[in-house]
């Protein structure tokens, strides 16, 4: 398992290196061409750890394995996690360090033609909604999924990449997904520019998860204080802004195209912990 260590300080609340599991889910986490862990969540955790003088080792692995190792205590931490009661059996949750949003998108060249201010607009305007099969897309979608299908307005696909491709071929009108990951994926992997619609479909607080197998309460409290300090200083918001404004141009840092594996925070507990609105998010 490739690993990357960050930080070399002593006299910290984490005298040992913190082992962090992650998978390929751009722009939240992935490995660049040199094997370095990069991404929004990587940047945020690194900032929090550096604030405390802690050392991190990022270990790339499938989501299911990371959850198993977190339960066993051989992994210390996972990023990008949504809170669920069943996970509290083996993990502590930090305070929220960012908010995840689910939004609707259209191709940029159709932004002037389509406007959705409320969920019912999908029905009244007869808009075909493209939805990746796996993921959490809010209560409005959950409650209306069968009716969307009955009226021929629901177009399911195996993953977000295929949904983006289908949107580019006009096999659907609007696309649902993670507000940061979906446009990034579309621009960098598919060459499609997306525009968000007005409606905020869902939002969810995102946390770090710590193994309960090891006594991480002291570290948890220190990281919560670091999150609070950096939030009040505006440092966490600056990282989010940076990733929201990432250039549309592809660079040598561009992540590989995901294979469709769910992100851990969004998956059932058979996989890594993730929130569900994305294909590969680690802890939802």
TrEMBL record:
- KW DNA-binding (keyword) present: no
Q: InterPro entries from the entry?
A: SBP_3_CS, Solute-binding_3/MltF_N
Q: Where can this protein be found?
A: Cell envelope
Q: Region Disordered: list its residue ranges.
A: 253-284
Q: Where is the Solute-binding protein family 3/N-terminal domain?
A: 17-247
Q: Which PROSITE patterns does the entry mention?
A: SBP_BACTERIAL_3
Q: Which Pfam families match?
A: SBP_bac_3
Q: What is this protein called?
A: Amino acid ABC transporter substrate-binding protein
Annotated organism of origin: Shewanella marisflavi
